Amino acid sequence: MRFLRNSLVCICGLLLLLQVGFAQEASFRLAPLHPVQELREKALMAQPPKEKGSFRAPDLVELVKLDPTIKLDVRYATADNFLGTPVYTEARTFLQRPAAEALLRAALDLKSRGYGLILFDGYRPWYVTKIFWDATPRDKKMFVADPAMGSKHNRGCAVDLTLYDLATGKEVTMPSGYDEMTGRSYANYAGGTAEERAHRAVLRAAMVKQGFAVNPTEWWHFDYKDWKHYPILNVKFEDLGD
Predict the structure, then answer these.
(1) Residue 188 — φ and ψ, nearest 5°?
(2) C-alpha span between 43 and 45 (Å, rounded)
(3) 3-class DSSP state of 214
(4) What range does the domain containing 180 cover?
(5) Which candidate in 126, 128, 139, 156 could, as Cys together with 48 as Cys, close a disulfide (CB 3.0–4.6 Å)?
(6) Integer CA distances (angstroms), 29 to 99, 227, 236, in order
(7) Coil, strand or helix: which one is 171?
């Protein structure tokens, strides 16, 4: 009986964890390997990897200034994220100009279908990528980028986003919540409801049409085709100007 009770406790705990991740209003949580403030201090002292070759000059554009229907839900600027503490200093989203223009074309396409965009993240300073990597347990590292390689977010060519209904203003449901580190986040996850999978397909089709590729393990994460042409950046949001 004791074994049965313990097993039920473990199962209930797992279901609670998954339910929290599933909810659109709350982010998935994990216990960081080290205190985030300690990781932040180390990351700010570290340097991004040195890259060879020539790159385009960065031209980061703030997305909400281009389309008033774009909504922001920058959870990394709040405690409502997988680490449970703010890691961004400001709630802002940027992309390199060609990627931003492609995103606007996708947004226009989606408007014709009754949807608007909610942006979770865009350009990400390299030091934040290092925080994520150093905080995340080994079995979840497939969901975060290795700072030794840099990420497409660091290059200003990746965006995390979802849809909302223009008629109601409400976020649509998807097969998983944002930043949920489970198989439900996979772009081709076959579970969830038919409606949730349909929403995911609508978002994916609009983004792919404009030159974005979906991340296989994150339905919300899209990389712009020109990412290789831009360098890894480590500029803080407050240093990007108004």
Answers:
(1) -110, 20
(2) 5
(3) strand
(4) 2-239
(5) 126
(6) 30, 29, 25
(7) strand
Q: What are phi and psi of 124, to 5 degrees?
A: -130, 120
pLDDT per residue as tens digits for the range 65-112: 999 999 999 999 999 998 999 999 999 999 999 999 999 999 999 999
Residue 167's pLDDT band (cuts 50, 70, 90): very high
CATH number of the structural domain spanning residue 140: 3.30.1380.10
Q: Which of 161, 158, 154, 159 is nearest to 133 (CA)?
A: 154
Does residue 48 surpass a pLDDT of 80?
yes
Q: Angle formed by the axes of helices 126-135 and 36-45, to 10°? A: 140
Tokens in use for 241? 């100007």
Q: How far apart are CA 18 and CA 231, in angstroms?
A: 36
**Contact (Cβ atoms closer than 8 angstroms) between residue 200 and residue 110:** no
Phi-psi region of 211 (alpha: psi -120 to 50; beta: other; left: phi over 0): left
Q: Residue type for 185, please?
A: S
Q: Are 167 and 107 in contact, with CB atoms under 8 Å apart? A: no
Q: Which pLDDT does position 25 carry in this prediction?
A: 58
**Total count of domains within the chain:** 1
Nearest to residue 27, comparing CAs of 167, 143, 128, 195? 143
Active site residue ranges: 218
Q: Quote the pTM value.
A: 0.88
Closest CA to 222 of 230, 210, 238: 210
